[in-house]
Amino acid sequence: MDKSGLIIKSISGEYVVLSGNDTYTCKPIGLFRFKGISPRVGDKCIIDFVDGAWVIKEIKKRKNELVRPVVANIDKVIIVTSLIEPNLNLNLLDRLICQVEYADIPIVLVFSKADLVNLDDYKEVIDYYKGLDYKVYLTPLEVNSLKEEFNDCICVLAGQSGVGKSNLINYLDLGINLKTGEISNALGRGKHTTRHTELYRIGSGYLADTPGFGALDLEMDEATLSQTFKEFFKLKCKYNPCFHLQEPGCKIKEEVEKGNILKSRYDNYLLFLKEIKDAKKRNIYNKKK
Ligand SMILES: Nc1nc2c(ncn2[C@@H]2O[C@H](COP(=O)(O)OP(=O)(O)OP(=O)(O)O)[C@@H](O)[C@H]2O)c(=O)[nH]1
Ligand SMILES: [Mg+2]
Ligand SMILES: [Zn+2]
Which domains are seen in the chain, by residue range? Predict the structure, then answer.
């Protein structure tokens, strides 16, 4: 009775698998835990009816995966950043870009709540990211053109709580009515309304709504970090590797001084570099103990 399917939802140890036009709620076979395999939304799998229940008995090899959000076989990550409520968070935006570049998955950028601000105030930042060759959409204004991005592929929404990920799915398909949350007045943050990851059919593709998150550790080494900043990677500094700190002949520092590289990009780079170095030190220290 084997059927092949796609995991579209994971909730407290059970998985909803779409096969043809039907969905099946499945448990993974015990062997997975033994082998350290944990099924993920986006996994292609084989399910079977065993002892009166549906089980996932095989997971197909993944083409890629992300830890945050936890999704496999992703064709594009849609990074959602609100211009306001919560305030524009370029630290998290750059952090997410680094993580997704590192996983080598195409990125689309969405700046949400464009209807609530004077866009002139954000033009410099928005144009800068457009100039990096990322596709950029302002929502809700450009929802219809954004929709084209999801054709025939598995896409994933990523971003802080309250930026409007679930709301975006509601805009994209008026038939889907996801719960959205208010923004806490006191903290200016979202309230973690979405609690699980789920793929929704949008046009001929799938889009995953995911829970928002704030912190994200970058798990890569120092030399790799600078390669995840697209505009840095293109320039050739005098030294190789150059960490773009105090090295003479550093092209990146020159471009920051000339105003060609956005200051916040460089500052975030320095911050991430320090975090990676500190984490490395902690690991060495922990190993010695
Ligand atoms: N005016 C306006 N409001 C928006 C927009 N996007 C989201 N909102 C509002 O912002 C609030 C938060 O939106 P959600 O869709 O719940 O945010 P989320 O990213 O899914 O948050 P979590 O599920 O907590 O991760 C809701 O009240 C939405 O109605 C937008 O583009 N314009
Ligand atoms: Mg949500
Ligand atoms: Zn340099």
Answer: 3-59 (2.40.50.140), 65-209 (3.40.50.300), 222-288 (1.10.40.50)
